[in-house]
C-alpha cells in the first residue's frame, strides 16, 4: 500500500486530494497545524472515501521545531513514504513572521516545506515509484526571488503581500527544478490548482476589505474537488511518471515563468534555504 503524506490535508484542496487518493487505495497521512481540526478531518475523509487507513500528524510549517518533530514522528509511526504532497499554503497582506523570524509566506510556503521534504527525502528514495508534488500558483509568473526580503521589510521598501506570495510560489517551482537535479530518481512536479474557493485569504489577519472581496468572488471559483484534480493526477497517473521537473495546470504540462527555469537561481535558493533551516 502506498503511503502518502499531505500537508494541509484538513481542509480545502488538501482534504479533497486526500479523499481522492484514499479512494484509490493509498494510506493517507495528513500533516496539519491544528490537532483538533486534523482529527475532525480524518473522520470526514474516512467517511467520504469509505477507507480506514487515514491518519494525522501535527505540523506547524511556521515552526522549524514543529516540522522536525513531524518528520521524526512520521518515521517512528510509518517508516515508509512513497508520495509527498506539499499542499499547505497561505496568503496575507500583513507583514507577519514565523517562529524563527522569517516573513510568513516564504517561511510557510517554501522554507517549512523545504525542511519537511529534505528531512524525509531518504524515505522517498527507498520507494519504488517516489513522487513529490508541490502546489504552486500562477502567481509565480510575477514572482521574483529577493533573498534580502526573507525576513520582511528592507529599508524604505514597503511590504507587499502579493509580491511576497508570488516570491513564495516561484520558490515552489524553483525547488521542484532543483529536486530533479539533486534527486533525479524522484518524480517531482509543481502545479497551479486553479483559482479555488478555499479559506486561504479569509484568515492570517488579512485586512477586512481583502476578506470581504474574497468572500464575494468565492462562489465563482473552482470547488476544492476540482482544484485537487491536478494534484491527484500528478500523484497517481502513470503519465506523470514519464516526465520530471515540470509545471502543470489543468492536468496539462505548461511552460512556467522564465525565472523558474533559471538553474543558477534554483541552485542558490536551495543552498540559501539549506543554510537558513540549519540556523
Tags for this entry?
globular, 13% strand, Rossmann fold, 279 residues, alpha/beta
Your description of this structure?
The protein has 279 residues and is α/β, with parallel strands linked by helices. It has one domain: NAD(P)-binding Rossmann-like Domain (Rossmann fold). It is built from 10 helices and 8 strands. Strands 3-2-1-4-5-6-7-8 form an 8-stranded mixed sheet, with helices on both faces. Helix 1 (12-23) packs parallel to helix 2 (35-49), helix 4 (104-125) runs parallel beside helix 5 and helix 5 (161-182) packs across helix 10 (263-278). The mean pLDDT is 92.
Q: Could you describe the largest sheet, including whether it forms a barrel?
A: 8 strands, mixed
N to C succession of SSEs: EHEHEHEHEHEHHHHEEH
Unreliable parts: none
Might you state the CATH topology name?
Rossmann fold
Radius of gyration: 17 Å
Shape: globular
Number of helices: 10
Mean pLDDT: 92
Strand order of the largest sheet: 3-2-1-4-5-6-7-8
Task: Provide a compact summary of the structure.
The chain has 10 helices and 8 strands. It has 279 residues and is an alpha/beta fold.
Task: Walk me through the topology.
Layout (H helix, E strand, L loop, with lengths): L2 E5 L4 H12 L3 E6 L2 H15 L4 E5 L5 H14 L5 E4 L17 H22 L5 E5 L25 H22 L4 E6 L15 H10 L6 H4 L1 H8 L1 H4 L5 E3 L2 E3 L8 H16 L1
